Request: fold
Amino acid sequence: MDRLTQYAETLDTAAIKAEATPQITPVDSAFTVEEAYQVQKLSVDRRLARGERRIGVKMGLTSRAKMLQVGVDEVAWGRLTDAMLVEEGSSLSRAKYVHPRVEPEIAFLMKAPLAGKVTAAAALAAVEAIAPAMEIIDSRFENFKFALEDVVADNTSSSGLVIGPWHSPRQDFSNLGVILEIDGEVVEVGSTAAILGHPLRSLVAAARLVAEAGEQLEAGDIVMAGGITAAPNLSPGQTVRNTVQNLGSVMFQVE
Ligand code: 0L1
Ligand code: MG
Reply:
């Protein structure tokens, strides 16, 4: 087995077993970002081979708060499958994750394909709806510690997503207030402007990055725009809610 296939298998197994695995880059200094995206695809292909269905993509590290939290300062993307969907208002099991965290986000629902270098206007024209959302991230690496190459190989820590009510994108969503609450207590506040200055920039970047991988955003895809604040840890018993100005709330519980 070649080394990239081995890394993909190791990361996929770590996710299935909810057991941390050592970082790749300290022992493979030649590991490149391009190879890491190949590992990501190989690892997600294993999920698809088990019957999971591709539902879209996520953008990661699109805000200063996220970059500072994990010490990586480049935008990255990952792949979403239907098995990652957590029903809005439902409970997820902490035991299925290594060390989960939650990110307040907004999500796009695509109504037309999009790929390559596109303008913000073209990106907006391809959007059916926007929604308040949360991503559950769970690095498969020990101590939630990684370099860019590691986290890209690990599907940018993607583990779950929760989507709230869909709304028309024909409104100004460039600078909407965001409040993340755990057990009714405000733990993070932010603005959609934290996503690259405007969430549409994240969609423009997603179109460019998927095209570089020979793929495209499809009609019906969900695109997670990226974490707006630092991501708090999740523990059993918590109720987690993200409220986005004008878009309403989305919540889940941890058991
Ligand atoms: O912004 C994100 O969705 C997170 C990307 C990966 C970094 C992390 O695990 O915090
Ligand atoms: Mg995220």
